[in-house]
Amino acid sequence: MKNKAIVLGANYYIGLSIIRCLGIQGIKVTAIDYSNEGTYGFASKYLNEKLIAPHYKENPEGLLKFLIDYAKKQEHTPVLFPSADPYVEFIDKYLIELKEYYLIPQTEKGLYTKVMNKETLHRLAEEHDVLVPETVRLDEENYIEKVENIIKYPCLVKPVDSPAFVSKFRQKLFKVYNRKELEEAIKKSQDVNLEVIIQRIIPGFDDHMNTFDAYIDQNNKVTHWMTCQKYRQYPINFGASVYTAQKYFPELYDLGASFLENIGFKGFAEIEFKKDSETGDFYLIEINARTTNLNSLLYKAGLNMPYIAYMDLIGSPLQDKSITENTNLVFWYAYEDLLAVKKYIQTKQLTISEVLKSYFKPKAYAIWDFNDPKPAFVFLGNILKRIKEKVFK
Question: What is the rounded distance in angstroms from the CA atom of residue 256 to the CA atom of residue 97?
Answer without folding.
Answer: 30
